[in-house]
Amino acid sequence: MANAIVWAPEPRQAFEIIAKTKELGLTPVVLHVGAGDAQAYIQHGAAKVLVAEQPNLKDIQAGPMTDALADAVKQVDAKAVFLSGGRRGKEIAPRLGVKLRAGVVTLAQKARSENGKLVFERMFLGGKTLATEVPQTDIAIATFPARLFEPLPANPSVKGEVAKLAGDVRESKVKVVAKKPRKESGVNLEAAPIVVGAGRGFKSKDDLKLAFDLAATLGGQVGCSRPLATDLGWLTDEYWIGLSGKEVKPKVYIAAGISGQIQHTTGIRNSKLIVAVNTNKDAPIFKMADYGIVGDLYKVLPALNNAVKKQKGA
Ligand SMILES: Cc1cc2nc3c(=O)[nH]c(=O)nc-3n(C[C@H](O)[C@H](O)[C@H](O)COP(=O)(O)OP(=O)(O)OC[C@H]3O[C@@H](n4cnc5c(N)ncnc54)[C@H](O)[C@@H]3O)c2cc1C
Predict the structure, then answer these.
(1) 58 shares a domain with 202
(2) Nearest C-alpha to atom 49 of ligand 1 is from which residue?
(3) Does residue 69 share a domain with residue 195?
(4) Whose CA is nearest to atom 43 of ligand 1?
């Protein structure tokens, strides 16, 4: 089996990609930068971990990371590189593609092995088109969005090889001159089991309290459609769901006052159950909803909230 290098800034994302790598019939070799437990990757299915301790990698900048990944490819003769599709992944993948003269597919939604080639599917034209892409080079590079794949359960009894990454890593051409911790908003939509999505059906920022109250009762988080995070500016882009926002995968997604344009539904289509609340019975969201409530969110959300509270005995 050919080796594939896996790198993600968060271990959980690396675990997801390790699981997919194995499904593709490749051997996952994780590049691990900095501190942290290298064995955790092995427990989640990696065959080997290359630990990179080169000082130029400390800020995980695109230039040095490109060097490190190219070195990792050389060290284990890898035929694929799979990265997380976050900001760093977006910066690194094309650079690595140029350095290794390898075909790159970014933000792949699906991947499979076919006749010895890796085949990827990704969205185009604002999500209206699904393109199938097959890198034609000896090495294939792809990035995947977070939460697309399920990690394998950890097996603490497995032991694997941990080795040092060989090679020099150049100094970054961009210097980090300051770092300040950001005020934590506590929004982690990708991990939320329940998401209440708020759309333009809300008439004012204050009314979003209805969504926040319901989310709190359900133990979930609030997300929103693009206009609320951009044009209206009621919520920050951490809440923004969709093609150009976050992709969520909760057990339940409640779309309140959201019409269901493709650019939004792209970000929710892997939800296990979708409930839509909309006054317009012809709203596109009802086509993909498991449960549809044709009604006014100003009445439906408080009623749902009360019903759940009652059920909980609160
Ligand atoms: C390149 C590109 C990228 C984009 N990326 C994204 C993205 O990532 N995420 C995203 O969300 N959008 C994105 N968009 C925008 C997207 O096309 C839609 O414009 C947007 O999703 C609409 O938001 P909405 O459903 O909240 O608003 P609207 O389309 O205005 O829908 C509001 C809905 O609320 C209903 N409503 C009104 N009052 C009530 C009430 N009292 N109770 C219940 N329902 C009510 C209405 O019937 C309507 O269906 C993108 C667009 C482009 C061109």
Answers:
(1) no
(2) 259
(3) no
(4) 278
Name, in order, each residue with C-beta under 8 angstroms of 34's C-beta and a sequence gap of 6 or more: 52, 57, 58, 60
pTM (2 decimals)? 0.71
- Give the residue whose CA is nearest to atom 27 of ligand 1: 200
In sign, the C-alpha dihedral spanning 228, 90, 138, 113 is negative
CATH number at residue 116: 3.40.50.620
pLDDT at 127: 64
CA of 265 relative to ligand 1 center, distance in Å: 10
Residue 210 lies in a domain: yes
Tell whether 25 and 149 lie within a shared domain: yes
Residues with CB under 6 A from ligand 1: 126, 199-201, 225-227, 241-245, 257-259, 261, 263-264, 267, 277-280, 283, 296-298
| Tens of pLDDT, residues 183-202 | 767 788 988 999 999 999 99
CA angle at residue 290 from 287 to 296, to 5 degrees? 75
For residue 286, pLDDT beyond 80: yes
Ligand 1: residue of 259, 262, 274 to mutate (most ligand atoms within 8 A of CB) is 259
Distance, CA 225 to ligand 1 centroid (Å)?
A: 6
In a domain, 158, yes or no: yes
Same domain, 290 and 242: yes
The residue among 86, 58, 57 whose CA lies nearest residue 72 is: 57
Nearest to 106 by CA among 125, 127, 121: 121
Total of domains in the chain: 2
Asked if the structure places residue 101 within a domain, the reply is yes
Residue 191's SS3 state is: helix
